[in-house]
Design goal:
alpha+beta, 2 helices, single chain
Length: 136
């Protein structure tokens, strides 16, 4: 009976692992993107203040904003400020995550709607790796 139980347990553990490990990897990638997004929340008021004071979108060359690479930290290779193709102020994050190629090297955008005063999020990353506010 013990041999039969062990014989049934090993395949069951394999099946559970085959399902759980990829799900956990997705969770880790999603949490890294969420942490990165949360870390940039402090930059949003600086963009809003600049727009209100100058009447235009800031760039990395403007006072109070550093070169894109100066913002590098865990999860982020660079952060660029400027006007997006949609003609709104944007913060562009170049994601860096050596453990998750699904995220590494992709971009995430926070776009500020000056008229509405709200921020929108979009990304090159698959929706399953994005935090809820960024899933469109």
């Amino acid at each position: 009976a013990l041999v039969v139980a062990a014989g049934l347990t090993v395949p069951l553990v394999g099946i559970v692992a085959a399902i759980a490990i990829p799900a956990y990897q997705d969770y880790l990638a999603r949490s890294r993107v969420a942490q990165t997004l949360a870390a940039t929340a402090a930059l949003q008021p600086a963009v809003v203040a600049f727009v209100e004071a100058q009447g235009r979108c800031p760039s990395n060359d403007d006072p109070g904003f550093e070169p894109a690479e100066a913002y590098a930290r865990a999860g982020v290779a660079a952060i660029a400020f400027g006007e997006s193709d949609a003609r709104v102020c944007a913060i562009e994050l170049l994601l860096q995550d050596d453990r998750h190629e699904e995220v590494d090297g992709h971009r995430l955008w926070l776009e500020y709607d000056v008229a509405g005063g709200d921020w929108r999020c979009s990304a090159e990353v698959e929706a399953r790796y994005l935090p809820a506010p960024c899933r469109g």
